[in-house]
Write the structure tokens for this entry.
Amino acid sequence: MFLRRSAVVYTLLFTITASSLVAAQNSSCPLDFSVLQPFRRPSPDGATTCQYLLQGLRLLYSHHLRQTGSFLPPSDSAASCWAALQSSIAGFLPRFDVRSRCGFQTPWISQGCMNITTRSQFESLIPNSTLTTAVMRCNLSLESNTPCASCTQSLSSFQAFLTGTSVGNVSDCAAFPSIYAAAHANRYGPTDKGTAKCLFQLDLASGSSGKNGKKMVKILVPLLAAVLLVASAWLFWYYRRKRKDFDRRKMKKQRDSLEAGITQSRLDSMSGSTTLVKFSFEEIKKATNSFSRNNIIGRGGYGNVFKGVLQDGTEVAFKRFKNCSAGGDANFAHEVEVIASIRHVNLLALRGYCTATTPYEGHQRIIVCDLVSNGSLHDHLFGDLETQLSWPLRQRIALGMARGLAYLHYGAQPSIIHRDIKASNILLDERFEAKVADFGLAKFNPEGMTHMSTRVAGTMGYVAPEYALYGQLTEKSDVYSFGVVLLELLSRRKAIVTDDDGQPVSVADWAWSLVREGQTLDVVEDGMPEKGSPEVLEKYVLIAVLCSHPQLHARPTMDQVVKMLESNEFTVISIPQRPIPLVARRDEIDLSVSSSSGSGKLTSPTGYQAFSFGADLLHGNTNTG
Ligand SMILES: *[C@@H]1O[C@H](CO)[C@@H](O)[C@H](O)[C@H]1NC(C)=O
Ligand SMILES: *[C@@H]1O[C@H](CO)[C@@H](O)[C@H](O)[C@H]1NC(C)=O
Ligand SMILES: *[C@@H]1O[C@H](CO)[C@@H](O)[C@H](O)[C@H]1NC(C)=O
Ligand SMILES: *[C@@H]1O[C@H](CO)[C@@H](O)[C@H](O)[C@H]1NC(C)=O
Ligand SMILES: *[C@@H]1O[C@H](CO)[C@@H](O)[C@H](O)[C@H]1NC(C)=O
């Protein structure tokens, strides 16, 4: 609400008088301030004025570069340039002393990045291929998101060659690529509507005058409030209904499969071969050496995991749930039966289960699974294991996880939403083939629920926002968690870490901020053995970022993910706009408001915009068996 309102206020237009424009023409400053006239101005009381002035100056520099071939005005014109800027804003920002209010020093207006002054100096620093790519991607209308993102993305690779020091903060090395591209790569030049918006975050003002604008605000604010109210009421109702529908569908499904299960067990007893064994508590006690401490191979909020040897000599794992009551046993046995019927090389096979009440240990629920020899992905990434996974192993693990989940979603009958995908639920066998564990059992795990309603099962940092906030559960929630685990696998950074200011930062937000800045490969762990080609690494990072997108419709399906990971072609991944993170710093929010367009959309000056890499595979044919 607040953001909407300020966006509207921000769109207020201020007319400036012709006389102030004339005064702006100081012959000794070569910058042409009239160029800025058509662009929308900040309101006098806005906190965004310095940002506007900064971007406005950069647009002026670009215009100057296009006209004259030099980036900045000569240093002897610095004083008169400030004076000219001052008088050009006098019409709408009277008594705003730019230098003292924005912390600029006088010489800074004619100083920039590494003493570069001319176009040819700049071009000599950037390799031809990088320049050519940028021109290719920026030489078109940048008005819509995709070309703009692809242009800014290619410009971000200039930074690697502009490593010298910048003087001041009026135009620094970070700003130079945009100034250059608007002047010499884009065919329309910096004053074009799309170019100014994309590269300088400046919007053209529309035709209405200040008076109309104020009137509009009077009408628009209550109107917007009403619309928002109706929309949120509708959303509330919609989610509740969806949720009810979902619960109803699920109950029906459970009933159906319960019936199917009964028929199945009759069939089984007829043929005398069951896939699922009901173990006795005594058997398990014997196999695990009376649940000896030495046999513990995993601990969690739900209970412990023990390894043990069955009578026939096979090694298995026993997962023993703690604090359970006999009440849910029927439901539990049923779930276990359904789960046991699902077999895939990348899913941990369930062999059997046990429910029992004993005099000393209380009620018991145990499931019996295949034992995998290499522990969990969590152990390898964050545990005490010294070894560092090589890239080929990580690739195999990523593909295995994806295939296992795709099978759960689209191959299994009934299809299963895992709900609790995390690094410690990805187990690795002796060949480092990933085995997704614990599917279908999330509701029996109390772990990770402490901060959430009991209806949401999952672990902090891995749970998709819509599931955490609204309890809206779809396959796409698993895709989100998969994206987080994939990012952990690529970066060896935990799902949530605390930054220097004590703020929690999710690996998804962190990776996105790097991708947005064109530093996609910085997501990948330094010093990973046998690093793959940059194209492949980049593809994996982009897929992970796409999967962990906060908006569920932006995420691909697991089938699509498998296809993208498997394909050897240059895959194309476009990442749609993303809202600012939930835990954003105050200045990030201010910036996103100041640069937002009249539509009230949240975007940041660096561009939370769609990124596109090549042809679109996502929308290709996605049928897989
Ligand atoms: C331009 O600005 C400078 C600095 O304020 C001033 O000294 C000079 O007289 C101005 N020139 C014109 C033509 O207004
Ligand atoms: C520019 O830098 C100065 C000092 O380094 C700082 O006080 C000021 O806030 C900065 N201005 C902007 C717009 O970043
Ligand atoms: C830029 O120029 C100034 C003076 O002209 C010089 O002192 C400084 O070393 C130069 N900086 C670079 C990075 O070349
Ligand atoms: C880069 O381009 C310039 C001008 O087009 C040319 O003179 C130079 O030889 C090129 N350099 C390389 C390494 O291709
Ligand atoms: C951009 O495209 C236009 C039209 O095709 C062309 O005339 C111009 O030379 C191109 N600009 C650059 C820098 O390649």
Summary: Residues 128 surround 2-acetamido-2-deoxy-beta-D-glucopyranose (ligand 4) (CB under 6 Å). The chain is about 45% helix and 10% strand.
